[in-house]
From TrEMBL:
Keywords: Signal. CDD domains: PBP2_NikA_DppA_OppA_like_3. GO terms for biological process: peptide transport. GO terms for molecular function: peptide transmembrane transporter activity. This is ABC transporter substrate-binding protein. One of its GO terms (cellular component) is periplasmic space. Residues 1-27 form the signal peptide. It comes from Streptomyces regalis.
Length: 496
């Protein structure tokens, strides 16, 4: 049972405050700090890969407006110019004209060679950034300002792919070592100047930014995995912008300081189709039927979420109108089968979801063990298929603004994030068809057919669609509230 947040014992509040003591002192240059207020940001997850853009850390670089891509997406998910001024397609080849007048934070000039270097590094990385799952991509400099990008098969989504923060364009200095180091190597309005391991980072305004001078002198970031501590940072004025406030804390904060947005993020139970109890499709069906998602929404999320109808939620409003009933395998009897469910502590609600699912599945006849750790300590085991089931809060259009990349990554036979260990020809065929369909209504229909193929296998049970709760202190102006989690502090963001 949850202890109401307003009744948290004094020891809990003291512990949260201790986590923040000194965290948000200015970490940037004295010169930058002298010009207005620096923005203090409390982030949920610390860097996993030293802020390499080839990992999920890329989204931090994007949210701090330090690393940029050739293309950006508008609110509808359509491709718009960024470091590329324009582009055109000819079969498998796309030609991009590089924006003039852009410099990296080390003073070097953005040109075609720099673009080719970054894209080639990503395309040849092992593992590849997930936006390139199943994609053969080569980049070539045609002249100083023109780059051609060629794919193995005709790909209608190349511009959307190139908007992924994992395909950010960095200066040559970023690639000198064994890992990609983004410090001082971006093109955005803020320069990353200091990284203190997994505890903090600092960015200063880059006054030569091609898009105009940022309104804030810099950003001081602290990584605060503890949700109570992040909420305390907003309540006590220790932070200006707080990422991912837990549902349990939202009700006791000043409601004028929090923003709640439906996210393209689905809380999903992935079932291991390769081995263990859930290799049996009838037991996967039994698990699906045992789950009461509505009680999770009301009990764990206090109504601040939406019951899932499919893998794609209300943040993609077209999905519900295209969806038709899915034919499932008949549920079998668990007969006391033992299963282990894994999840992680970084998102405060997930351990509670795990505990609730344990009760629901045990009621249905399973014996259920839980394995709950920090994400950094459990991801490799999850990807290796060491659990019978895994609970994940999964962004469904994080990379390209198009759900095909997520569906391929998570459910294709060769997908890089295939927690279900699914290898099904019918699913692969529908995913391939969706990936080859031109953007628009036809593609959306193909996406829903691919979703139906996955759901028919019960490889994943979508439970609920989350809403992000972001905290902005009273003096914060124009912080981004981005459902795709790509933007947070922009050139227009400042603190009064």
């Amino acid at each position: 049972m949850r202890v109401p947040a307003r009744l948290l014992p004094l020891t809990a509040v003291t512990a949260a405050s201790a986590l923040l003591t000194g965290c948000f002192s200015s970490a940037g240059s004295d010169e930058a700090a002298a010009d207005g207020k620096r923005i203090r940001v409390a982030h949920m997850q610390p860097p996993r890969s030293g802020l390499s853009p080839l990992s999920d850390d890329a989204f931090k670089l994007s949210r701090w407006s330090t690393a940029e891509t050739l293309v950006k997406l508008d609110k509808e998910g359509d491709a718009q110019p960024a470091l590329a001024a324009k582009w055109q397609q000819a079969g498998r080849t796309w030609t991009f004209e590089i924006r003039d007048g852009v410099t990296f934070h080390d003073g070097t000039k953005l040109d075609a060679d720099a673009v080719v270097r970054s894209l080639t590094k990503a395309a040849t990385a092992s593992p590849k950034p997930r936006i390139l799952d199943g994609v053969e991509l080569t980049a070539k400099a045609e002249d100083a300002d023109t780059v051609t990008v060629t794919t193995g098969t005709e790909d209608p989504l190349v511009p959307q792919r190139l908007s992924s923060p994992q395909l950010a364009i960095l200066a040559a200095k970023a690639y000198k070592g064994k890992t990609v180091n983004p410090v001082g190597a971006g093109t955005g309005p803020f320069e990353l100047v200091k990284v203190n391991g997994t505890s903090s980072a600092a960015l200063d305004r880059y006054d030569a930014y091609w898009g105009g001078k940022a309104k804030a002198p810099g950003i001081d970031v602290t990584f605060v995995p503890d949700g109570t501590a992040r909420a305390a940072a907003l309540r006590t004025g220790e932070a200006d912008i707080v990422e991912a406030i837990p549902v349990s804390q939202a009700a006791v904060l000043d409601q004028d300081l929090i923003t709640e947005v439906p996210m393209p993020r689905t809380n999903t139970l992935y079932l291991n189709t390769e081995k263990g109890a859930f290799k049996d499709a009838s037991l996967r069906a039994a698990a699906r039927e045992a789950i009461d998602a509505e009680s999770l929404v009301e009990g764990v999320y206090e109504g601040r979420a939406d019951v899932a109808e499919g893998l794609l939620g209300p943040a993609l409003p077209w999905a519900a109108g295209l969806r038709t009933p899915v034919k499932h395998t008949k549920a079998g009897k668990p007969n006391g089968k033992t299963i282990t469910i894994g999840t992680f502590t970084d998102r405060a609600e997930l351990p509670e979801v795990a505990a609730a699912l344990q009760q629901q599945l045990q009621k249905a006849g399973f014996k259920v063990k839980l394995d709950v750790r920090e994400y950094a300590n459990i991801e490799s085991d999850a990807l290796a298929g060491k659990f019978d089931a895994f609970i994940l809060s999964r962004a469904t259009v994080l990379d390209s603004g198009d759900p095909v990349a997520y569906l391929y990554s998570d459910f294709a036979s060769d997908g890089s994030f295939n927690l279900s260990q699914l290898a099904d020809p019918s699913v692969d065929a529908e995913l391939k068809k969706a990936g080859e369909t031109q953007a628009g209504d036809a593609r959306r229909k193909a996406v829903i057919k691919a979703e139906a193929a996955v759901l028919a296998q019960d490889a994943a049970v979508p439970m609920l669609h989350e809403r992000v709760i972001q905290g902005d202190a009273a003096g914060v102006v124009d912080a981004a509230h981005d459902p795709r989690e790509r933007e947070l502090v922009t050139a227009d963001t400042y603190v009064k």
